[in-house]
Amino acid sequence: MEAGFSEMRNELHLRDALWRRIQLECQQLHTELLKIREYKDRQEIQMKHQSSCVQLTEQLENKSTELLLLAQNQECQQEELNKIRNHLYREEQSHCSEQERMKTEISDLTEELHQKEITIATIMEKASLLEKQLKMELEMKDKLLAKQQLLDFQYKVIKSENTHLKEMV
Fold this sequence. Notes:
With 169 residues, the chain is mainly alpha-helical. It has one domain. The chain is built from two helices and no strands. Helix 1 (2-70) runs antiparallel to helix 2. It is found in: Cytoplasm.
């Protein structure tokens, strides 16, 4: 009987350790989510900066047109303008792909978090069921122990009566 209680205690300790591990993993996931949110906020700031860069580029193009009319080296300035446009185009493309990658990553992390929440809920449900089973088993063992004690008491009474009867005989 003592071994049974010890086994149940060990099982409870194991489940408690599992629960702590799950809580730690939830905290880690929460930390990762906060990092992702910070990164997303930085991306939004970069997007605003990109918008102001586009405005500056438009102003530069207007000034370039004026300079082309006045300057003698029209071809050199046009080549420079083309280089700037190509660079901006590459930057925009790079920025767009980075945004798409971030969206995918956030989606993947959200899905992973959702799966882990489902796993935690399942584990909690199983733990609750096991706890109910353990309580039922403890109640059964307590009843059996009480019955055993009653039988021991009855045995001692009968033994005492037998001894008394033997002495009388």
